[in-house]
Amino acid sequence: MIVDDHIAPNLINSSVWAKMFYFLYRIFVAKFLSNQTDIFIPVTESVKNVMTQVYGLSGTFRVIEHGADQKIFYPSKQLRQNFRFKHKIDAKEFVLAYTGKIMEEKKVHLLIEAFFELRRTYLDIKLFIVGFSDPHYIERLRNRCSVYQIDSSVIFADPVENSALGEVYNGVDLVVWPEGVTMSSLEAAMCGVPSVMRNLDDEIK
Question: How confident is the model at residue 182, as a pLDDT?
Fold first, then answer.
C-alpha cells in the first residue's frame, strides 16, 4: 500500500478537539497503518514532519515534490486569444484570476474585496474565478459582487479539468491565491504568468 499526503503544517488544526483526535490517531491508527504501508510519499520535507510528528507514522518515506506538465502549461499567444474570445474579454483588458476550490477556507472573498478597491481606480480590469465550489459560499460571493456593482466585471466560470488550465493561465495577466501557497503557481509560471500569494514559510519550504 502507498500513502500520499500533502497537508502543510500551517493547516493542522490546533484546537483541543483536534489534539485529542491526533492523540487517539497515534495510538489506534498510526501503528497499524505503518505496518500495512510499503511506502509513504510526502510532497515536501515539512509534510513528512507532519506525517511523523503529528500523525505518528513510521516506516519508509520518499519525498516526491510536485511538478507541472510541460505539454499542458507553456506560453501561447493562440491560447490567450482563444480564452479571451471565449469569455468575451477585450485584448486591452487586464485580467486577474483565481483557480482552485472556491470555499471560505480559501478566502476568495478577500480577492473580491481587493478587486472592488482596484475598480475604483482602474476600469479596464476583470476578475476570472474558476474551480469547484461550495454552492452557499459562491452565492455569497455573487451577492457581494452585485452589492458592489462589479458583477459585470467578475466572471464565475464552470469548473474545468486541469488540462484546460493552460488556456486560462495564458489568457489572464495575474493569478491571485489569497490563502497560502499553491502548486498551481508553478503551472501559471510555466505559462509566463506572475502570481500573488500569502507568504507562508512552511508551505514555501
Answer: 77
